[in-house]
Amino acid sequence: MGITVTTTIDAAHYIPDHPKCGYTHGHTWVITLTLWFNLEDEEVKSHLERHHMLVDFGALKKWFWCIVGEYDHTLLNNYFSYPTCERIAQTIAYQVKDRLSEVCKLPVRTINVLVSESEDTNVTVTLELQDKFHEPPSTVQ
Ligand SMILES: [Zn+2]
Hints:
Layout: E1 2-13, E2 25-36, H1 42-51, H2 57-68, H3 85-99, E3 110-118, E4 121-128
Antiparallel strand pairs: 1-2, 2-3, 3-4
The structure holds zinc ion.
């Protein structure tokens, strides 16, 4: 089961030495986060049965903004040597991974971060998390 929130930031960037993108310009970046949960995991399953949701959308959006809002109305070159979609998505995905326990106590199987700088282009980063449910079930002797 995937839980998705989307937010946008307005930010400028330039790609050093790039013939077209080497000049400072701006985008409205659309940034989408999906947290994937394993419904076969007992903890996830019982949480869903009791609370009918895995993560509160409002809490997740607010938390996600704490990460990506830092880049809003900035020059992204102040944060990245090469602020391409790839580098931005990679950085945000690892920021999400490092801080995930702040917003979600359940085991997350996969983090997906999609960064788009225009309607027809985007980059997706997928981080597979090694959690306890990746281990084979212990056999009863
Ligand atoms: Zn650009």
